[in-house]
Amino acid sequence: MNSDIFQGYKGKALEILKKYNTRVWGQAEIETSRGTFKGTILPRAENDDDKHIVVKIITGYNIGIDVDTIKKMKETGYKKAKYAIPEQEFPTTPNLPNVKLFGTGGTIASRLDYRTGAVIPAFSPGELYGAVPELADICNLTTEKVFAVFSENMGPDQYIALAKAIGKEIENGIDGIVIGHGTDTLHHTAAALTFMVQNSPVPIVLVGSQRSSDRPSSDAALNLMHSMFAAGHSDIAEVMVCMFGPTSDDYGLLHKGTRVRKMHSSYRSTFRTIGDSPLARVNRKQIIPIKQNYNHRRKDNKVDILPYFNKKVGMLYFWPGMSSDALDSFIDNGYEGVIIVGTGLGHVNKGLYPALERAKEKGIHIYMTLQTLWGYVHMFVYDTGRDLMAKGVIPLGNMLPEVAWVKLSWVLGQTKDPKKVKEMMLTPINDEITEREPYNGYLVYQGGVPEVEEFIKKVRK
Amino acid sequence: MKINPKKNYEKTKKEIGYISRKKASQKTYDKIGFMSGLEVHQQLLTKHKLFCHCPAGVFNKNNEYDAELIRHMRPTLSELGEYDGTALMEFKTRKNIIYRINNKNTCTYEIDDTPPFPIDKEALQIALEISLLCKLNIVGEVHITRKQYLDGSIPAGFQRTAILGVEGEIPLKNKKIRLIQLSIEEDSCREISDIGHTRIYKTDRLGMPLIETVTYPDMVNPDEVMEAADYIRFLNRSTGKVRTGSGAGREDVNVSCKGGTRVEIKGVSHNKWIPELTHNEAFRQWALLSIKEKLNKITSEKKWKLNFEYLDYDMFKITYPPLKTARDKNYKLIAINLPHFNGILSHFTQPGKVFLDEISDRLKVIACLEKPNILSTEDFKPIINKKDLEIIKPILNSNENDAQLIIWGPKEDIPTAIEVIEERCKMAFNGVPPETRKSLADGTTIFERVLPGADRMYPDTDSAPIPLENNYIDNLNKNLPVEIITRFNQLKKWNIPQDSYKYILSKNLVPLIEKIVKNLKIDSRFIGTFLGHKLKFIEGHYVSQSKFDYNIIYKMFEFIVNEKLNINIAESMLPIIYEHPKMQFLSVLDIINYRKRNIQQITAPVNFLKEKYREIGKKQTPEAESNWIMGELRKQAIGNINLKELKNKIQNS
User: Which helix (H) or strand (E) holds B138?
Assistant: First the structure.
């Protein structure tokens, strides 16, 4: 009961509140050595200190009062705030596609959490309709909260649960699937679902937002509209990530789940297709294709769900001067596969050779990817590369490191036969390795160069 | 019953008892229940912006930008779970907001692509010093709050702001004004243009540290409002740590009259405009209350309903240019009937303005219809003629006491436009709608936005609270500048003429006078007048080649004293020094052709000049003669001898 009345308060601050019989949401008059303050006592974020009491004053601002300065305090009233997005029934329109939204947590739609001071998701179709009424013009929506975890806490168990949930929806004849997801590991999940959900007849779109929907400039609403439109109306029946193309409120991009990566910690346009171009552009009214080859939407309800995952796969980001102990710890802890993220064309130093040899003896599957992200592993060019291959390291072409980790985990969940594993790893399921890198697959502009500046000023919004 | 709009305007103006400010007295303001409070904004003089490391005070022209980006603002829930009225209105307008970014003053923080960095310590300290000067109760912990702005003036859609103190006071001549609070906040974008559905901003000012001092509505006449605004401005400047110049200090003025509503006049950058603006706003509200009374006598808000019909351009002979353009652009043309509004549309609201303007202003802001956007049966210069009315009235089924409007615009904006008109007319039944209004130079105002409420506040989940320890505050308290009221009294004691006070306080020159009087033993009245008249004139008429620091004035007087020059040379030196602050004082003397001469050398030609004057003088009186000779010798005397003394010498030789 205490936790409800004194939400988030502890130690000294809690003592003071109890002493003066004042509750959270109580209106209080507080006499302090710095003068008198009046307002509503608010809950306190759990990780904040125990030396202050938070008060919302009449003008709507919050302030903190130092408990050591408090001389007297009196509760003069009580009014608990109710925080709810106005909920309205999501309308059903006969000719619109049926889309299922799976919630996993993240900030696509959220509200304030006083416990942590952060935002927590709010997700029913009614709430979503209340917040983004335009969705009703795009599709008929049903939602299901599969679990509520922050992006960084998504993992193998969640991938499997999602894959199975998607399978069930497809069998039930849904027209498209959207998955709301935190952005940090969105591309890991996208890769996992690409491998676990194959031959889908409908689009499977992962979406998040870089600015929580509790702010007016949030990208959440537009991302939701874009992803629902793609899920309901697109002909591309693949696992995709749908996020802002530019940082402006303009269009979204549909990225292949195996080629997409989060490239900026906070930009709205953080997701980029690496080593290729995205599948399509999307706005609220249309899909504008970029790539011509993709898996088309089908009328049937057939899909292959392959929910396998081996949790004993690790990733090793190489640093100069690395010695064997780094890899040894994987070996000693029973890891069955390791993705190395090597330098340049796919290299590590000689210090690692003993551990590589040991790993080979133990039958650990070792694959090579690149820190450069762009380009292919080329291990024939230098002696080092040839040495490494001799020690059992297998190059993974232009597969992205995170995708390689997901795929090896998925493969080792099905077989441990080295030959079979290698064959599966090197046979692309959906462009995780591509045969060619188009000229516009690598575009990292440098600011300051005149033609780039001109492009930024005139074209890129 | 046809009315004459112009006559109706005059009649209603008289009816509500409008008089000009010059003729108004406290009795006038007591009668209409004038009430006003202030929100004084002041930029702080810091190196960096408030929540990122961009330089503060680096500005760019409208067309100097490196990139543009587009945002749309969407209302969100406040912490207490409610949507804000302004928020919803602004969402209705569906504006494309374009930001022009210049790399030298803007980073990814301003455009909301990077979370905030910790608050600028320098800014926080200055703001706390000013809070202490305002005798505010300082908070124990600073909580950064997000205050929603959906007009686009901040790309995030909210301003980061925090309260530093509550409940303070400032002393005016005759009374004390209570303060509600002082907050530190980031400044907003500067608008470049706002046409139709596109509003363009630049981001140079965005994020610069700003404080807002909010008073209670304790002011009861327009002059008192200005006095309070001046006092707060002087107080801010007394720290020497705030920005000055155009736009560095801006006032939002809240006004209401008895039975009226709090209306906020936004961004008044000159305090001298405040009296006229507040006077007119109080009377605008008084006029709206009169309209309310009239309407409620005839019908009620609940029963009232407008009706409208789409028109064909072919129905009329169109000569009015805006309508010709509308026809060419294929805009919709609509006639609207406002029941019982005959005589209301041309009802006085402000000097030169009528109730119809209230509708037209809202059409521009909310429905994005550029002006001119409306015609009515009560225009001063009628465009809709009798023949037109014979067509329109039957279509609308109008009665004799109704008024009619014509509007035009793009198809997609029309539903909002009609809604806006309906809404504003219904509001007339309730008197004064809460609004923020933009000030115009002529002392009138126009609609800017619906007045936002406390519902737009939201804790900033991106920043942690900042504790303010007792010893930190105590230390700040020990190093505060002298209070403004003390300075007022000091100026009085120094016998400095009253007309210099404003200039001296606004430039924070009291410490300079004190230093000159104390160290150089120069008469305080002389220095006060010198600064308040001479320096003020020069600042207004000369341009400085490099930054003019007022401490140069001390150095100049020190030089004069050390060189044993007469103090009257200061007036000749100042313009040169002001233009060239880096020039050596000896060179200044050269430029003004100063030569050291003693009194004998100066007065030597007096007898010769007297003879000369007898030949050429028009008016042969002793006074005229000595004046002419003074003129001849003045140049040589400056810096060497007191001019009064010289005149005595001339008259007595």
Answer: strand B137-138
Specify which residues B588 forms β-bridges with: none
Mean pLDDT of A1-16: 83
The model's pLDDT over B451-506, given as tens digits with 9 standing for 90+, comes to: 776 567 778 888 999 999 999 999 999 989 888 888 888 899 999 998 899 899 88
Instruction: Mark yes or no for CB contact A215/B76 under 8 Å.
Output: yes
Known catalytic membership, residue A183: yes
Decide if B459 is inside a domain. Answer: no
In a domain, B525, yes or no: yes
Given a cut of 90, whether residue A302 has pLDDT beyond it is yes
CA distances, A202 to each of A178, A205, A386 (Å) = 11, 10, 43
Give yes or no for residue B533 having a pLDDT over 70: yes
Do A121 and A106 form a contact (C-beta atoms < 8 A)?
yes
C-alpha distance from B252 to closest chain A C-alpha (Å): 16
- Of A272-276, A352-356, A455-459, B249-253, the poorest mean pLDDT is in A455-459
Among residues 255-284 of chain A, which lie with CB inside 8 Å of chain B?
Answer: 264-268
Query: Is B451 part of any domain?
Result: no
Domain that holds residue B380: 5-12+296-444
| Structural domains of chain A, ranges and CATH numbers in brackets | 3-78 (2.30.30.520), 98-305 (3.40.50.1170), 313-426 (3.40.50.40)
Together in a domain, B198 and B329 = no
CA distance B404 to B162: 48
The reply to whether residue A119 touches residue B465, judged by beta carbons under 8 angstroms, is: no
Q: Is the CB of residue A445 less than 8 Å away from at least one CB of chain B? A: no
Structure tokens given for A44: 């306190």
- C-alpha–C-alpha distance, residues B78 and B84, integer Å: 8
Q: Does A66 sit within 8 Å of B467, measured CB to CB? A: yes
Q: Which residues of B271-302 are buried (b: 16+ CB within 10 A; e: fewer)?
A: bebbbbbbbbbbbbbbbbbbbbebbeeeeeee
Q: What would the pLDDT profile of A209-267 be if each residue is shown by its tens digit?
A: 898 777 788 898 899 999 999 999 999 999 999 999 999 999 999 999 999 999 999 99
pLDDT tens readout for residues B242-270: 998 888 999 999 999 999 999 999 989 89
A117 has a pLDDT exceeding 50: no
**ipTM score for this prediction:** 0.88
**B515 and B433 in one domain?**
no
Domain count, chain B: 3
Q: How far apart are CA A347 and CA A391, in angstroms?
A: 12
Same domain, B238 and B347: no
Last residue of a domain, one of B239, B262, B285: B262
